[in-house]
Amino acid sequence: MSEHFLVTGGNRLEGEVLVGGAKNSVLKLMAAALLAEGTTVVTNCPDILDVPLMADVLRGLGCEVELEDSEVRITTPAEPKYHADFDAVKQFRASVCVLGPLVARCRRAVVALPGGDAIGSRPLDMHQSGLRLLGARSEIEHGCVVAEADDLHGANIRLVFPSVGATENILMAAVLARGETVIDNAAREPEIVDLCNMLNEMGAKVSGGGTSTLTIQGVRKLEPTTHRVIGDRIVAATWGVAASMTRGDVRVRGVNHKHLGLVLDKLRTAGAEVTPEVDGFRVIQRERPKAVNFATLPYPGFPTDLQPMAIGLAAVAEGTSMITENVFESRFRFVEEMIRLGADARTDGHHAVIRGVPVLSSAPVWSSDIRAGAGLVLAGLVADGTTEVHDIFHIDRGYPRFVENLRGLGGVIERVSSE
Ligand code: UD1
Description:
- The protein has helices at residues 23-32, 50-60, 86-89, 99-106, 125-133, 164-174, 190-201, 233-245, 261-269, 307-316, 335-340, 370-381, 393-398, 402-408, and strands at residues 3-8, 14-18, 38-43, 64-68, 71-76, 83-84, 108-112, 137-141, 144-148, 156-158, 180-184, 205-207, 213-217, 226-228, 249-253, 273-277, 280-284, 294-295, 320-324, 344-348, 351-355, 360-361, 364-366, 383-384, 386-390, 412-417.
- Strand 4 and strand 5 form a beta hairpin.
- The relative contact order is 0.16.
- By secondary structure, it is an alpha/beta fold.
- Bound molecules: uridine-diphosphate-N-acetylglucosamine.
């Protein structure tokens, strides 16, 4: 049964919101459990559908997985299966992160290729060329990415772009390879650091996490561990931007504010008072936000996952903002929906120019992915009247307890059946 949100604009958001573990970290940490025989525990897991879906992928590979509240216990057998089939994988792209651990553990992996994505093509060429340098053969066969290695050995790998997924897969393969691997131009996202930390707790020898050069000394065997997922910086920043857009006062907890340095600076440029706190940050916006330019880039640049929220902010800011998307080619598709809400926006290639208007105008709109959906809800909070946001299953995939959290801050939102 499909559902949509009814979002009524006009309220300023006020209060405190707690964010859970990072979606983009937890799935990789769960995949890392494949690297060690025995029971690995991951805590602070967010309550989103991708976690049980990933649990199913791991069960299909022979693991026992128990989920309870925010904890997942994964028991990996001595010999996991190496074939992640289409039924398990098709539901979400991130499942491709089992590729590296399976090659490392089984010397063989067959992972069905997930389908297309609304934000642009998402090839795996860098994942594959990295694994090849480690000594694996890798091809796309019958809709699956296949990788096999008789001998996995260290290598010098220079990525042509600091891809998050490729860095993770190569890293998780290299930890059990013979000898030293150096990954140059590696992704530096906090979620990569989280993964490096967990691998080291398991007995891996990884250094340079958070820098562009990762150095991995392969070891023969890893041991299970218990690891706490870092807070979700994208969810946290979504609430921060919402505070700024609604001229509100919101305290966000459960995240390391250092993971959001540039984002918080941008909110300051928009006129917000931003105070870092031990366990998060606080955003107070008193006047109408001012226009701010954004260019998305790999970390520590402005996250592409926050580009839709940046567009929402620009749509109601005083002045003209220029937004440049450098990571995913089709991410501006959702701007059409913002225009439907009265945004004065034009896109040309990977640039968008947005002239802020004082208030948006409610309309029915459709989410195309998790972040676009959240961006549309934020726009609804500053539109007159009631905005219908459809295809909200996308939003549910990235934002646990979205309605409860937004209501807790004074937002007017209702989940209703579309039938
Ligand atoms: C991850 C995040 C996603 C975020 C993105 C960029 C997860 C589950 N998802 O996605 O939310 O938006 O990082 O911060 O963690 N590319 C290639 N070839 C490859 C791999 C990537 O051309 O082999 C390209 C992609 O098409 C894209 C760019 O590199 O244009 C960045 O992709 P990547 O960093 O790999 O993103 P994901 O890991 O898929």
